[in-house]
Amino acid sequence: MTSMTTTTHAGLLTDKVVFISGAGRGIGAAAAALFAREGARVMLAARSEDQLAAVAATVRDAGGAAEYVVCDLADGAAVRAAVDRTVEVYGRLDAAFNNGATIVPPGPLDQVAEDDFDRVYEVNLKGVYTAMAAEVAAIRATARSGAIVNTSSVGSLKANPELPSYGAMKRAVNSLTESAAVTYGPENIRVNAIAPGTTLTEMIREWESASPGVIDRLVAGTPLRRGAEPVEVAEAAAWLLSDRASFVTGAILRVDGGAWV
Fold first, then answer.
1. Which of 57, 175, 197, 212 has most Cβ atoms within 10 angstroms of its Cβ?
2. Among 68, 90, 129, 166, the one annotated catalytic
């Protein structure tokens, strides 16, 4: 009689505890579901408790482990508390996906209101900076090694005349990512970023409402001739956070369908 051996393949993120900001919708919500399917226990953070509760319920209904904490990324104390809460609940932090961001009304630089500029700085740059510092401390104190992925944008890699302040903050995130990769590499804490292109999230639909036709224009400059589903972007983040990417750090990975304009 021939015996048969069944091989069970572990998920990309099995046994990892992952903190996800901007988890209430879009790429963050897709990441929450995906990371949990890949074996992670996730802590979800965003401003809207209703959205967080819905995403967490979806993850749990599918058999995953999810908790959430309400957090405004512009509030440094709240960001640090959210990361600390992850350790309180799960006992450790292995990885973090800093995905939360805000957008400003599109338009040329001279038409960007100072308050809007300040808000996009506080959330998209300072919020990421604060989160990374807290995450490094938590990883160092618990898991002792780990990975961080920041969400940048393809708009950070070239001129961004319609969203100049957004592009500027995301370009600064690239710099923070690269600097942190060099700083924490000796501790085996990897830091990378993804640079999504046109992704069919609520954020880009808000941009479409303000500038009708922008999605079609962006898709026309994308060789794959479509926008990404949020989960397609989350897949790239999952790989970078996993041990499969164990020798990848300091990378700004384009997830943009080959966008050239």
1. 197
2. 166
